[in-house]
Inverse folding.
């Protein structure tokens, strides 16, 4: 007589259970992958949406100079030149950028205006009181982009640092600046230079030279300021009309 083993209906096959677990894990992995993929797509779309597109903008910077130059990539041989002094920790510089950057960019790309940007870091302190801070880090990132001729990334990083000044002041480090520059299309070389703080000494030097220049030529130093031929182009509240004054 054959004896059959009666299986408890509540018992499950060990192999079946394992395959069920594997299937659940596989499905979870796919779901997580889709979430990550969609999240990155949204981040990329957001970065693209806030990127200011420039078509005829060039930036040039020579090591040792106290400024970098924004000019038209093509044309601009008859452009009128001005010197713009600014500090990334200066609230009024942020206000000026918001009020005049759009018009300035239009005139630069039209070949009518050339802007020599003289960055300053005196709000990180002066002399023995100087400590590398937000102004220096932000300028170092800007110089890394200028040295690599990356006009669009530079313009957008600068615009972001001024537009979001209240939220980023003393809250962004080199990694944050490098990540933002990358979002704006910076090259791997420039991003690495920002991340490693390659231009921090240059930033300190540039800021110091511009501080000395203003003190020597006018007896006082401040930002924002627009000059031409060692003299103020506009003063006080008229500074919001500096683009018109530069082209007059």
């Amino acid at each position: 007589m054959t004896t059959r083993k009666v299986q408890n209906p509540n018992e499950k096959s060990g192999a079946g259970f394992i395959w069920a677990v594997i299937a659940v894990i596989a499905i979870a992995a796919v779901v997580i992958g889709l979430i990550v993929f969609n999240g990155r797509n949204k981040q990329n779309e957001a970065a693209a949406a806030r990127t200011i597109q420039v078509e005829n903008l060039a930036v040039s910077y020579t090591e040792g100079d106290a400024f970098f130059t924004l000019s038209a990539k093509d044309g601009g041989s008859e452009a009128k030149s001005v010197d713009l002094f600014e500090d990334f920790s200066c609230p009024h510089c942020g206000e000026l950028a918001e009020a005049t950057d759009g018009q300035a960019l239009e005139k630069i790309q039209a070949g009518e205006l050339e802007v020599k940007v003289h960055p300053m870091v005196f709000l990180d302190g002066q002399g023995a009181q100087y400590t590398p801070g937000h102004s220096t880090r932000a300028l170092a990132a800007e110089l890394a982009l200028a040295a690599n001729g990356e006009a669009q990334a530079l313009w957008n990083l600068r615009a972001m640092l001024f537009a979001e000044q209240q939220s980023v002041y003393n809250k962004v480090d080199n990694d944050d600046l490098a990540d933002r520059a990358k979002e704006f299309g910076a090259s791997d070389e420039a991003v690495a230079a920002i991340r490693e703080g390659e231009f921090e000494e240059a930033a300190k030097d540039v800021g110091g030279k511009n501080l000395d220049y203003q003190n020597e030529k006018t007896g006082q130093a401040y930002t924002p300021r627009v000059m031409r031929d060692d003299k103020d182009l506009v003063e006080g509240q008229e500074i919001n009309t500096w683009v018109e004054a530069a082209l007059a």
About this structure: The chain has two domains: 15-50, 57-247. The mean pLDDT is 91. The chain is about 50% helix and 10% strand.
